[in-house]
């Protein structure tokens, strides 16, 4: 397969290079397009009123590019401008930090994968806790990729999270619904040395204790697989209310 590899941690992420090498070693054609710096939690923003600067990277035979834009920009450039042959699959990650529950709306990793869906491509997003061993995360991903039938198993995209455990201690793989979470806390008001007022985000996610959600299953030691789509329509929200003007 021709795989477009993107992320939000940036082109210099060790996990990105490790995954690129692993995909190439598994016989896939790989193209890498990643932000030129960390762009975590930027959501699904795209660049419209500024140029996107692209730099070629030396990745020992893997075409790799840094991009001044967002993760979603990287997906667009990779699909529309920086590949000469069709892309069969977009892989976003591996992200240093989980992408679960309500955090998905903030995630640049998930946004980069969903941008592929909007362009008609199938995608996988890969994340793990910051303390996870990147080699284990890549090993898990390559094992699962080898078992996936893209036509049957991936309607749009899958969001995968790997626990921070040795490979032999991972309990298995579970399909998991997205859990819920709410960022709690607030902002700390501070003063810069020059006297300017600023605020520092002090919030953190509080997650519900939903049994067998992506969050709870990952905590118990399972790899979680959650199917996602780019549609925000609530099919149950059409109440039938009649409006008049």
From TrEMBL:
Q: Which GO terms describe its molecular function?
A: 5'-nucleotidase activity; metal ion binding; nucleotide binding
Report which reactions are catalysed by this protein. Answer: a ribonucleoside 5'-phosphate + H2O = a ribonucleoside + phosphate
In this chain, a divalent metal cation is annotated as bound at: 8-9, 40, 95
EC numbers for this chain: 3.1.3.5
- Name the source's superkingdom: Bacteria
InterPro entries in alphabetical order: SurE, SurE-like_Pase/nucleotidase, SurE-like_sf
The places in or outside the cell where this protein is found are: Cytoplasm
Q: Which cofactor does it need?
A: a divalent metal cation
Q: Which positions, given as ranges, span the membrane?
A: none
Q: Tell me yes or no: is Nucleus among this UniProt entry's keywords.
A: no
Q: How is the cofactor bound?
A: Binds 1 divalent metal cation per subunit.
Protein purpose:
Nucleotidase that shows phosphatase activity on nucleoside 5'-monophosphates.
Protein name per its UniProtKB record? 5'-nucleotidase SurE
Name its species. Answer: Candidatus Acutalibacter pullistercoris
